Amino acid sequence: MGQTISINTRHGRISAWHARPRVTPRGALIVVQEIFGVNSHIRQVADRFANYGYVAIAPALFDATHPGTELGYDAAGVERGRAMAEEIGFNGALDGVRGAFDFLEAEFKVGVVGFCWGGSVAYYTNTKLGLPAVSYYGGRTLPLLRDRPKAPLMLHFGENDALIPPADVEKHREALPGAEIIVWPGVGHGFNCDQRPDYDAETSQQAMTRTLNFFQKHLR
Questions:
Q1: Percentage of the chain surpassing pLDDT 90?
Q2: b/e string for 197-206 if b means 16 or more Cβ within 10 A?
Q3: Tens digit of pLDDT for each residue in 157-201?
Q4: Residue 42 to residues 9, 16, 18, 70, 127: CA-CA distances in angstroms?
């Protein structure tokens, strides 16, 4: 359904995966990658949102420094992806997200949804650009909680996430009383990704239903 396009950012052009629905769009979503780049999973996620009626665009946030990055879900991919995420930082990631927003905002109301590192980027985008945001297992959000949300916010966590313990989830609840925070029972980190060991199809679909309801409400 989707295709690769090029978008402008304040630091040059980057690629992005762009998927459009076959019906009149309900709005537009910026899909923010994990540390593994805009790989086949993220492209599938964008296509999935298009199937539900949203224009979806997944900017390749690492393109500014490492064009064409697609990493696997193995130890080498994790190590490489973490290094690249540290290299560009949240402000560098925001630059790519802002480029996607600039591409979409003249025509659509825009939200942002991110996964893992991208979940934290989605939160950061909410605080800086004021976009409704959904974060899936954003493991790097704690240091960002000093920046207050400027738009509606939903956070998904897995009950058995070894990277985000219950104490950290509770800190999110304390800092974000206005956010909708969902802890899914019996699942771990990456439950939405069918390329990860922790993938859970039932929870993934339930979380998608909650996410779609959120955007239907806030992108009217």
A1: 98
A2: ebbbeebbee
A3: 999 999 999 999 999 999 999 999 999 999 999 999 999 999 999
A4: 20, 11, 11, 10, 23
Tokens of 19: 């998927």
Q: Taking the model in full, what pTM does it have?
A: 0.97
Confidence of residue 11 (pLDDT cuts 50, 70, 90): confident
Is 80 exceeded by the pLDDT of residue 73?
A: yes
Distance (Å, rounded) from C-alpha 112 to C-alpha 121?
9
Q: Which phi and psi angles does 105 have, rounded to 5°?
A: -70, -20
CA angle 206–123–108, rounded 5-degree value: 80
For 112, 135, 181, 185, the CA distances from 155, given in Å and listed in that order, are: 12, 5, 5, 14
Residue with token string 């930082």: 89
Q: How far apart are CA 107 and CA 109, in angstroms?
A: 7
Helix or strand (DSSP H, E) at 99: helix 75-104
CB 90 within 8 A of CB 110: no
Q: Using CA atoms, how far apart are residues 5 and 27, in angstroms rounded to an integer?
A: 19
